[in-house]
Amino acid sequence: MGAVKEEAQEMIQSLPDNCTYEDIQYHLYVVEKIKNGISRAENGEISSHQDAKQRMAKWLSH
After folding, report:
1. In angstroms, what CA-CA distances link 11 with 4, 22, 58?
2. First CA to last CA across the chain, in angstroms?
3. Dist. CA 4–CA 51, nearest whole Å
């Protein structure tokens, strides 16, 4: 079995028995976003705090 499938199964098993499909989808989504962020950071695809503040200022000024 593939590593991703095993990891997903372990994550699902850790959820409460009364979880919904939406709960499962949300947790899978969060795990994927975290892993993508870690991978991007490891590849040097990061922004400085100052860059992030400048980008947010553009959004908040409208």
Report:
1. 10, 14, 37
2. 49
3. 33
pLDDT digits (tens, 9 = 90+) for 17-56: 999 999 999 999 999 999 999 999 999 998 899 999 998 9
Contacts of residue 46, defined as CB under 8 A and 6 or more positions apart, other chains included, come to 40
Structure tokens at 24: 């499962």
From residue 5, alpha-carbon distances to 16, 22, 38, 48, 58 in Å are 19, 18, 19, 34, 40
Q: Which structure tokens are listed for 22?
A: 């939406």
| One-letter amino acid of 57 | A
pTM of structure: 0.70
Cα 32 vs. chain centroid, distance in angstroms?
A: 5
